[in-house]
């Protein structure tokens, strides 16, 4: 009887299964402060800022008066602040990125000093930007008065994190990863170096003993500044990344940039369609490198003259006389839309996260030329999955490039593996932009996400690893052992003495 | 120019932001094998089986001919197998659950022997069920021929997991947790005992040194059978659970049973409405305990006679003459629907996961009477959040029960905290049933979820903790130190000798 009643209850219940709970008050809106970083970080942050604005939230983006990519949008307002540098300085710094491509020809010492000087200039610039915002009392006071619900920011430079802390606002971080395992430290996320490769090691999740030694040595742990982040929007997923532990406040939004698709302009569409059965090759070295040294460019032009595909190349450098007919040079490339086109056969990329995920999303095999930062690790992950070929920008020749392109285009295993990877990447219960917006709104609605914050943050190193407990238990074992030994010794002695006495008697 | 182009590109792009990627082939269906466990585990598994069937998948549920709750459904077919026990034996075993309520009055030795004998009977029964399925060659052959895409099962008894392994099918597990940290071991999920409380310790995530010692001692690790699971559907979320690391193949579906709502029958609805401003109290001790010893029941009847609320009680025991007018006894309680009613003021529960999440979902404060299993830990989590009061079924009196009910109903802090908890629990990007169905389909589509499987599974204990690497590095340090010391000693001796010689000269 009981069982029948239960079954009936359950069967009835499924008539109404569609009526799920509505967790959000309809029409609820709040206000969001966005403190972005210049460069490719902006892409994902801007996508969320725009979408939040489109949904009716009041979105304020705080940007320096001078920047490379940061700028106004359709659905948010910007608030600029003065900085002590000019656009020219930014452009000069950016031009230095091109130097990476020729640095092999420089003597080692000069190469190192160039790198250090570039790095120092970059850090100085970031410091100047941060100080210009954080010490701008008028602006900070203005922002305080706005009564924001949350801050969305890139934590790679902790300006936004610091501002959120000052304004006592919950923070949503968006990032790919932080160097030195700082992201793991700041989220209290376990990060065993035995199978989680460290950045810049080019290790995979299956490591030899030698590789694991390197991995452990890279395991530096610094700073605690970022622990207060409420939600971490991580620009990766496990189609590219090696599987590893996550914390409850981590949300994976890899490929957030792929969902935004537009038709190509008529001119570009015609050029693409004209490629016939051979299709097109898309070539871009990312938002920070649009040019290259002349002798490098010559290699690419030569190689492109030798392939049947048409090539669309983001290139702002010097244009030679003999540009092959199948090459179209563009100042800005609608990269995602081109990769999404059925004619796309290969993607030549520097291996930045955005480009890599656009390639995965649309299933286009890659020839990869890593330049700096996490690109070396990204391309290694792709190569280990058999969906692309890695070349060195320093040693590249027209022949190696043509061979690599022919391999990824004509060896069908690359396309097949890429399509499998693409199917897995695209098969997610919720699109990453939706997810990023949802969790940003969550932080605004609940003034943070305290229920996702692990108690590990309140433990010191000894406690976290239970070393105090283990020490205590060892101490007990030691005491018990010593006491037992002592007892045994005493008993033994007494026995001996008795035996001796008896003998003597 | 570049920047303007970029900004324009981006602004344009948002016109089409609605057009997200469609990852699933429309109309795709597959076939799913379900191997459930009897008891409360069935609730969640059945919900997914029904919903999968409703969506057009071929769902086959394999159940023993005799069971407590398992049975047919609207959207799936069942396949039964004979077992060497009868319904009567199951009922007897179930009746033993009631004995827990009086076990305090028994002498200690008898109490322990009763528990062991119950446990042994339970294990024997599970073994008999497992063998009846796994050694039923005809049935196994039949299932093999069905060409299923995946298996959905409760891994608490690994019958389904073993069957999946035998049939070489990817498995989706649904569970609350496994004892002895087995779930963490089988998923290679970090599980530091410093802040993650072990089951049956009643610890929270903030532990004193004494509690942490207990926690470490509970940290037994056994068996590797379950490592092959593709997806782990976990029946919890962080509104109740303390935040801790997750692995990529873990999907949180706590509260999967709350979404299914139905109108009350007319009779029940009238009884509920008739409660006026005082509202109702919902009382159930779960699917396995519907009765109680007479002297306990008397306490409850007495207490209910002293409160102004109306009480709906799932009770199949002996009915006394003087049942108070405000009490309605029912053989089966539409628990979730009653808790979802606006008149629900309090929930008296044993603290099973399903009931707890239904209470959280609908924001009803609780009086909790844990009986066995994970119930003690569940109620402790609730009490630590200030949303309920824990009583012991052994010491309970009419007065303590009335006091507890008055506290959770009239002290507004309980209701307020419960509503906050409820808001957080219900504020999720996707409802748990949707999520469970999505990932079950994912495993069917991709024949597993290998991209979510961490490389940690392939490491031994020494490697996982990098102890080999640390040993190697220590060895190097030792060698370098010894070599340096040796050099210094040699130099020192030579110097001394020279000085001696000079003196002698």
TrEMBL record, chains A, B:
Residues 1-20 form the signal peptide. The chain crosses the membrane at residues 469-492. It catalyses: glucuronate acceptor + UDP-alpha-D-glucuronate = acceptor beta-D-glucuronoside + UDP + H(+). It comes from the Eukaryota. It is found in: Endoplasmic reticulum membrane; Membrane. It holds the Pfam family UDPGT. Gene3D superfamilies: Glycogen Phosphorylase B. Its main location: endoplasmic reticulum. InterPro entries: UDP-glycosyltransferase, UDP_glucos_trans, UDP_glycos_trans_CS. Its EC number is 2.4.1.17. It is a single-pass membrane protein. Keywords: Endoplasmic reticulum, Glycoprotein, Glycosyltransferase, Membrane, Signal, Transferase, Transmembrane, Transmembrane helix. Belongs to the UDP-glycosyltransferase family. This is UDP-glucuronosyltransferase. It comes from Cirrhinus molitorella.
């Amino acid at each position: 009887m009981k069982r029948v009643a239960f079954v009936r209850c359950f069967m009835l219940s499924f008539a109404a299964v569609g009526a799920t709970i509505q967790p959000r008050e309809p029409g609820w809106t709040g206000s969001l402060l966005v403190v972005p970083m210049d460069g490719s970080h902006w892409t994902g942050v801007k996508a969320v800022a725009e979408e939040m604005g489109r949904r009716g939230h009041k979105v304020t983006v705080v940007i320096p008066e001078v920047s490379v990519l940061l700028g106004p949008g359709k659905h948010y307002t910007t608030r600029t602040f003065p900085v002590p540098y000019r656009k020219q300085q930014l452009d000069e710094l950016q031009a230095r990125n091109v130097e990476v491509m020729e640095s092999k020809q420089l003597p080692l010492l000069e190469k190192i000093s160039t790198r250090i000087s570039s790095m120092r200039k970059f850090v100085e610039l970031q410091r100047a930007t941060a100080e210009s915002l954080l010490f701008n009392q008028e602006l900070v006071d203005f922002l305080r008065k706005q009564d924001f619900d949350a801050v969305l920011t890139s934590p790679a430079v902790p300006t936004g994190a610091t501002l959120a802390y000052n304004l006592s606002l919950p923070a949503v971080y968006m990032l790919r990863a932080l160097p030195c395992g700082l992201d793991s430290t700041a989220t209290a996320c376990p990060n065993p170096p035995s199978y989680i490769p460290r950045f810049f090691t080019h290790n995979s999740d299956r490591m030899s003993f030698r590789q694991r030694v390197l991995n452990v040595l890279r395991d530096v742990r610094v700073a605690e500044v970022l622990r207060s982040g409420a939600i971490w929007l991580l620009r990766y997923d496990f189609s590219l990344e090696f599987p590893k532990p996550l914390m409850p406040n981590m949300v994976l939004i890899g490929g957030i940039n792929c969902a935004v698709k537009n038709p190509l302009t008529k001119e570009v569409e015609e050029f693409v369609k004209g490629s016939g059965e051979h299709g097109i090759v898309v070539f871009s070295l990312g938002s920070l490198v649009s040019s290259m040294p002349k002798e490098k460019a010559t290699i690419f032009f030569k190689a492109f003259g030798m392939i049947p595909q048409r090539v669309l190349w983001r290139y702002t450098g010097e244009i030679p006389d003999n540009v092959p007919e199948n090459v179209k040079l563009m100042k800005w490339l609608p990269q995602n839309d081109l990769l999404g086109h059925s004619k796309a056969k290969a993607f030549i990329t520097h291996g930045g996260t955005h480009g890599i995920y656009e390639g995965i999303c649309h299933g286009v095999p890659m020839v990869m030329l890593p330049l700096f930062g996490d690109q070396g690790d990204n391309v290694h992950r792709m190569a280990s999955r058999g969906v692309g070929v890695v070349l060195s920008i320093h040693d590249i020749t027209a022949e190696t490039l043509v061979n690599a392109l022919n391999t990824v285009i004509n060896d069908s295993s690359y396309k097949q593996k890429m399509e499998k990877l693409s199917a897995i990447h695209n098969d997610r219960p919720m699109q990453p932009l939706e997810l990023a917006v949802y969790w940003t709104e969550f932080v605004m609605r609940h003034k943070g996400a305290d229920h996702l914050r692990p108690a590990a943050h309140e433990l010191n190193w000894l406690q976290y690893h239970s070393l105090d407990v283990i020490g205590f238990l060892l101490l007990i074992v030691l005491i018990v052992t010593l006491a037992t030994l002592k007892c045994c010794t005493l008993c033994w002695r007494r026995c001996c003495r008795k035996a001796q006495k008896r003998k003597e008697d």
